[in-house]
Design a protein that fits this description.
6-stranded mixed beta sheet, 2 domains, alpha/beta
Length: about 300
């Protein structure tokens, strides 16, 4: 889908991107994270074909993105962190203009506008002027203008910046819908908790280099970890848990116990039955899921250890 080979970029004498090698999985949502000033926006602009790398290349479906810019732009959409809208146009006027600007044929124009507006949840705002929309609605119009031609690849730079919680939730649901349609998405954001809701992969940058690129929420296929809350656990509760069949490890923090066992629904169900038979009062149980923040912190810790 998108491949980057040995990409370097300079602003004058400043080396901004260093030997970037990257492959984005088709149908994934990748969170691009890292401190300010590490080159995230520059990388996005290179991927969008808006900057010419000093060295290396970006391939879109196996072809250099700058070899035929018009053909490349037909396959991608890019929304920068700061963008402008024509406030005096209505939503339907603006989306029609965006569709024409992106080469949607006249015979497909109406369906492209209607489908996109429905996807954005703005069908009730069709004839409202853009200047009357909320910030979250304007953000959706901004995304709409870069997906109306149904690109294969979507780049969003800080799309949740300045949005209220409701608008951020609506944005996350929109991205999941786009993913379900097969779109490959790269999202830059500082809000890790929100990226955690919809990202399938994380791409960590530091000082112009990629420090980690990995799938997230891929639990160990051989084992599972559970958080178990017991009511008034006896002093020997931990010992009882450790003695149960298939329990590989167990630890305790107050009334909450962390238990590791082989990965299967049957093993989990059997453990719950065994806990009750062991005379322990079960209050709640949940599967432990590694968050994006934990993955990010782990990746930084690994690189700090390797640098020592």
């Amino acid at each position: 889908m998108i491949q980057v080979h040995q990409l370097n970029f300079y602003y004058g004498r400043q080396h901004v991107l260093h030997d970037i090698d990257l492959h984005l999985t088709r149908g994934s949502i990748t969170g691009l994270i890292g401190p300010n000033g590490v080159g995230k926006s520059t990388l996005m602009r290179c991927l969008a074909g808006l900057e010419v790398p000093s060295d290396g290349e970006v391939l879109l479906n196996g072809r250099p993105i700058l070899e035929d810019p018009r053909a490349s732009f037909a396959q991608l959409g890019y929304l920068p962190d700061i963008f402008g809208l024509s406030d005096d146009l209505t939503v339907i006027q603006y989306m029609t203009y965006a569709a024409k600007a992106r080469g949607v044929p006249d015979n497909e124009l109406e369906s492209a506008v209607v489908d996109t507006v429905q996807l954005l949840g703005l069908e009730h705002k069709l004839y409202d002027h853009i200047k009357s929309l909320s910030r979250g609605q304007k953000q959706r119009v901004g995304i709409g203008q870069v997906i109306i031609h149904r690109p294969q690849f979507l780049l969003l730079d800080e799309p949740a910046s300045g949005l209220d919680p409701e608008a951020r939730y609506e944005l996350s649901q929109l991205l999941l819908r786009l993913k379900s349609e097969g779109m490959t998405i790269l999202v830059s954001s500082h809000i890790l908790s929100e990226l955690d809701e919809y990202c399938t992969h994380m791409l960590v940058m530091q000082r112009g280099r990629i420090k980690a690129h990995q799938a997230i929420h891929t639990e160990n296929q051989n084992e599972q970890t559970l958080k178990i809350h017991l009511l008034q656990p006896p002093q020997d509760a931990l010992a009882r848990l450790r003695s149960l069949p298939n329990v590989q490890a167990a630890s305790q923090q107050g009334d909450v116990f962390t238990v590791t066992l082989p990965h299967s629904d049957e093993m989990r169900a059997a453990l719950l039955s065994d806990i009750v038979r062991a005379g322990l009062t079960l209050s709640s149980v949940s599967v432990v899921r590694t968050t994006l923040l934990e993955n990010y912190q782990n990746s930084l810790n690994i690189h700090r250890e390797n640098a020592q």
